[in-house]
Amino acid sequence: MSRLDSMLRRLTAQRDGLNWAANQIADTAGDVLDLGLGNGRTYDHLRETLPDRRVWVIDRVLQCHPSCVPPEQDFLQGEAKPMLAQLAAGGHRIALAHYDFGVGDKEKDVAEAAALSPHVAAVMAPGGIIVSGQPLVGLEELDGPAGIPPGRYMFYRAS
Fold first, then answer.
1. φ/ψ of residue 75, rounded to 5
2. 76 CB contacts (<8 Å, ≥6 apart)?
């Protein structure tokens, strides 16, 4: 499979997974969290798909497309662990989180996801959904929507 085809499959799976998760949390109170802003495509999709929810963003740097810059009060810049602690200390609960941290080294990315899993879980609303590009630990894994190949995206429910 070409890299272009692989990228298209990944982006389609991501969009379909986020849309599925948005439907799953329709009756769950809470905000939305994008872990890893990048270019801002996912953030833009989340704010369009869930316009009545506050969308938080955590990333080390702000380097997204100018049309996707989150409001200053919703952008938590820095390392994820202290930013997640800040959210939790503020009493914020997350109904839908998208985990997209990674540097492209699978071993390092999986280890970071495992280390951050309890911190992500700590901010989640009961029944909240996490859509992740990396495996997380300590959360209930879900099948997710039909049509997404296993391992392409992972889906979890917070307890």
1. -105, 115
2. 56, 57, 58, 83, 86, 87
The model's pTM is 0.95
Phi, psi (deg, nearest 5) at residue 46: -65, -45
**151: region left, alpha or beta (phi > 0 left; psi from -120 to 50 alpha):** left
What's the pLDDT tens digit per position in 3-49?
Answer: 999 889 989 999 999 999 999 999 999 999 999 999 999 999 999 99
- CA–CA separation, 132 vs 159, rounded Å? 17
Asked if residue 100 lies in contact with residue 42, where contact means CB atoms within 8 angstroms, the answer is yes
**Across the beta sheet with 154-157, what order do the strands follow?**
75-77, 55-59, 31-35, 94-99, 124-132, 154-157, 140-142
Query: Residues 96, 34: contact at Cβ < 8 Å?
Result: no
